[in-house]
Amino acid sequence: MPVPYEALIPMGLVGVMFFVTGTGYNALARYRNDGKPIRHSIDEFESMMMKRDERLTGSMRGQATNPTAPKEFATNSAWNTERVL
């Protein structure tokens, strides 16, 4: 049984929209990660290092090459403070 030609136009539109949304999601994810691919299966150590890198460089994916931390790094601690009664 042949496929009617009228069905090819909607199926083409559906395929194009899948392509557009997939490409848009990939571009947005790379934009948020400084042009690098997204990370999968992040464990506790990697999330801790991502927080440290964000405190050092201002970007979660950026890494600093300077062996000494800037002066601001001493005061922007990752530890949360608690109110003492």
Layout of helices and strands:
Elements: H1 8-32, H2 44-57
Task: Give an account of the 3D structure.
It is a single-pass membrane protein. Residues 60-85 are annotated as: Disordered. The chain crosses the membrane at residues 7-29. This is NADH dehydrogenase [ubiquinone] 1 alpha subcomplex subunit 1. Keywords: Electron transport, Membrane, Mitochondrion, Mitochondrion inner membrane, Respiratory chain, Transmembrane, Transmembrane helix, Transport. With 85 residues, this protein is mainly alpha-helical. The protein folds into 2 domains: 1-38; 41-75, no CATH class. The chain contains 2 helices and no strands. The chain has helices at residues 8-32, 44-57. The termini are far apart. The model has no long low-confidence stretch (mean pLDDT 83).
Q: How large, in whole angstroms, is the Cα Rg?
A: 23 Å
Q: In total, how many beta strands?
A: 0
Q: Overall 3D geometry?
A: elongated
Work out the strand percent.
Answer: under 5%
Biggest beta sheet summary: none
- How many domains? The number is 2
- The low-confidence runs, each spanning 5 or more residues with pLDDT under 50, are none
Comma- or semicolon-separated keywords:
85 residues, single chain, 0% strand, mainly alpha, 2 helices
